[in-house]
Amino acid sequence: MQRCIRTLTRCAVRRAAALLSASNTALRDGQAGFPARYFASVSAADLQFGQPLHETHPHLLKSGELTPGITALEYAERRSKLAAKLDKNSIAIIAASDIKYKSGAVFYDFHQDSNFFYLTGFNEPDALVVIGKSSTEDDHHFRLYVREKDPKAEQWDGVRSGTQAAVDVFNADETGDITDILRHLEPLVTGASKIYTDFPSNQKSKSFFSRFISDKSTKSEGLTELLQKSHIKPLKDLINPIRNIKSPAEISNMRHAGRASGRAFTSAMRQPWTSETSLAAYLDYTFRQNGCHASAYIPVVAGGANASIIHYTQNNHLLSPSSMVLVDAGGEYGNYITDITRAWPISGRFTPPQKDLYTALLTTQRHCITLCRANADISLDGLHNLAESHLRDQLSQLGFDMSAGAKALERLFPHHLGHYIGLDVHDTPGQSRKESLREGQCVTVEPGLYVPDTEEFPVHFRGMGMRIEDSVCVQAEGPLVLTTEAVKEVEDIEALRT
């Protein structure tokens, strides 16, 4: 890490001089490994980049942070961890996300590729990162290719950070214009013994890199041919284990999102909602008011029988005072998400059948959460099996015929108990749920019961759908519930209306 710290120190000096100096004296950076450059003083009020920085948005980022809650040093440490896993004389290539369009010129909110964001903190489209490991030493080289500054394009589409900021702000060792990517990549691909990337096998990718490679014109055919001849290995096998263990800063971001979102849930439970639409809008607004940057995903706001549709997102029905509502929603902070589900009676008070089924579910969830600790030596699959056993016993006591065993429960509890969370709602895809939980992993615990409206089930439970979900960080000797502000005890829910 000495190299990274030295690089960051140089960049900090250079950046402070370029961005914040009150003097008009130009400063020269002539340190080894960097070209000599001259900087004049610039007022922080005049700075413009493609994303918030402390100098431009001190109300959003603290000094030293590259993105909310995460410092430039932590991003450098992440790249070092990945580089340590690379074979010598190999490279890792990760592409940024592309802008996605709803129709014509109407675009969706931009969301960065999670692996790219995790390694760079750079939050613009049409970019590429190459992390290379030399054949003679364990050090690595960080290249970041981005869109160059373009006043005309920026007038229409917003400010770009540009290649200068790729070095001065994002600490790249080398940079270049993404539109000239063939010239930059050709020698790197040719000289690498192995290339780690998830691009070639991902035909659904719509990044600048994927569009360039799939282009049939002569400008890309040389690189396409080189990649086809290269020894390509999947990147996810290297980066998933790194991303899966969260740092204290990542956990803090997820706790921030969980706290803000949990308080929004509890506030929503105080009110007698009449429509799914208005409840969904209230939560999205309150997540942001409480300090989240956005909703983490399209919410499920399902009244009555709609709750039995696992991914119900129409959110356009009226709510009956005699039924319950299931809400699966959460906010995100600094691109880190939280995932919460609660179910509560619209009237504010549980009927006896609602209370019985809810209590069976809550008892199971509480028990599973207590085992989200490293010293319990249990996996997500193991927790799921435990939840099934617990629910089977609880439902038998409530009069459900569970004699068919697993098939009977599968109709009532058709999904897994939990998944990993982090930068994605389903984080580090492909990560095994069979391995014992480790300290620093963050998961959901979300048992659910969805009773079909058929004669084979007790009449007073028919048509009910419930799920209780919390985001939990695994610690050495106990769980850290990231979403504890969202009340879930029967007495606490009912007390909100008194």
Strand count, sense and barrel status of the largest sheet are:
6 strands, mixed
Helix content: 25-40%
Instruction: Give the end-to-end Cα distance, rounded to a whole number of Å.
Output: 57 Å
Number of helices: 15
**C-alpha Rg, in Å?**
26 Å
pLDDT average, as an integer?
Answer: 88
- Poorly predicted ranges: 1-41, 200-205, 216-220
Write out the strand line-up for the largest beta sheet, numbering strands in chain order. Answer: 10-9-8-5-11-12
- Find the count of extended strands (DSSP E, 2+ residues): 23
Q: What structural class do helix, strand and pairing data support?
A: alpha+beta
What is the overall shape?
globular
Proportion of beta-strand residues: 15-25%
Short description, anyone?
With 498 residues, the protein is an alpha+beta fold.
Q: Any chance you could write out the topology, listing elements then pairs?
A:
Layout lengths: L1 H19 L6 E3 L7 E3 L25 E3 L2 E2 H14 L4 E6 L5 E3 L2 E2 L6 H7 L7 E6 L6 E7 L4 H7 L4 H7 L5 E4 L3 H11 L2 E3 L11 H7 L3 H12 L2 E2 L2 H9 L3 H22 L6 H14 L4 E2 L4 E4 L20 E6 L1 E3 L2 E2 L2 E6 L6 H19 L9 H18 L8 H7 L29 E4 L2 E3 L14 E3 L2 E5 L4 E3 L8 H6 L3
Parallel strand pairs: 5-11, 9-10, 11-12
Antiparallel strand pairs: 1-2, 3-4, 5-8, 6-7, 8-9, 13-16, 14-15, 15-18, 16-17, 19-22, 20-21, 22-23
Helix pairs in contact: 6-8, 10-11, 12-13
